[in-house]
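Forwarding these from the shared drive since the link keeps breaking.
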Amino acid sequence: MARMHARSTTIYGEPGAVEAGIAYVRDEVMSELGTVAGYVGLSMLADRATGRCIVTTSWADETALRASEERVRSLAERTVASLGGAPVLEEWEVAAMHRVHEPHPAAAGRVTWLRTDPDGVDRAVDAVRLSLMPKLDDLPGFCGVSVLTRRADGLAVASVSYDTRADLEQAAEGAREFREEFAPTMGIEAVDTADFEVAIAHLRVPETI
């Protein structure tokens, strides 16, 4: 069975333009992508304080991802025009998805970027799947978690969403323990972590756990 793929567009925009950027993605980008073959869904994370936003689109397989490249690049350029700043486009394989329910309007998310050797990417995914996910299910307000990978570069990204910012903050210590204590024992380095508002949650990737 073909794995689903994703494309993320990270935009370091102007804080004052975030609301307009969210509206543009919701009202224009999602509508246009809905006509593209193989498109599965879209999510948008936003940090209103810094202007950093991450728009992620999901695709049925690598063929659909490749075929959509020019269309998505054009949309990314228009999204940047609404937010200011510059985009960074990255392509990923969807390695794991687990959700309890769709995020509520006030949802917040924590994204952690992980690095290991290319042969250890599956180990990083298993670390999230076997160590982190069971603990998340017991946390108040937990909505879901996804893991994206880029095997050739030894990269993985884990994104965890919660009902509210307060739930996110309550889970901060467990997230720190995973990054600083557990992951290093598996040969995994947490290279960055950031908290966001879950502005749009329509990624529609099937459950894999």
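-- next protein --
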Amino acid sequence: MQLITVRTAIAADAAAIEKLYSELVSSPHVRVLPARLAAIARDPMTRLLVAETEYGVVGTVLVSLCSDVMFQNQPFAVVENLVVSASARSTGIGTRLMLEVEHLCQAADCSKIMLLSSSTRSDAHRFFEKTGYAGTTKKGFIKYRRQFDHSE
């Protein structure tokens, strides 16, 4: 069994995270800036985690705590960009990352954790359901920047 360490991302992880994101989406615009990672590390409402093994950084996930008013002071969490390198999938890395997300959210007294997954990523859907996320209780909607109304 391999040793998996989950920790907060640091600026030096930029290249490894960018490589992981390139496995998730095929876009020439993917850029991970060390300065942005440093800023996120200082943000008390956002955590970017990485999973490391003897092979280096092999997984990442971003969790953002969002202020809410419905349940007094309880925030809710949004998880984004969970990626495990194709060479390291099915080894427990995604599960470890999501468990750490749950620990962070429990410590912050979050009311819920939400995430979106591309409608075509059925392997990811099975993983999320296996880790306790319900894909049938709500329907997600998304509008990308290129679709925003740019008229003034």
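Strands lie at 5-8, 46-53, 56-66, 76-84, 113-115. Residues 4 and 124 are 20 Å apart (CA to CA).

- D.
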